[in-house]
Amino acid sequence: MTTPISEFPFTLLADELQRVRANTPLVHVLTNEVVQCFTANTLLAVGASPAMVVAKEEVADFAAIADALLINVGTLYAERLESMNLAIAAANAAGTPWVLDPVAVGVLSYRTEAAKAMLALKPAAIRGNGSEIIALAAGMGLAQSNHVGKGVDSTASSNAALSAAQALAQATGAIVAVTGAIDYITDGEKTWSVELGHPLMTKVVGTGCALSAVVAAFVADAPNRLDAVTAACALIALAGERAVECADGPGTFVAPFLDALHIIHPNQLRQVGV
Ligand SMILES: Nc1ncnc2c1ncn2[C@@H]1O[C@H](COP(=O)(O)OP(=O)(O)OP(=O)(O)O)[C@@H](O)[C@H]1O
Ligand SMILES: Cc1ncsc1CCO
Ligand SMILES: [Mg+2]
Question: Which residues does ATP bind (predicted)?
Answer without folding.
Answer: 127, 179
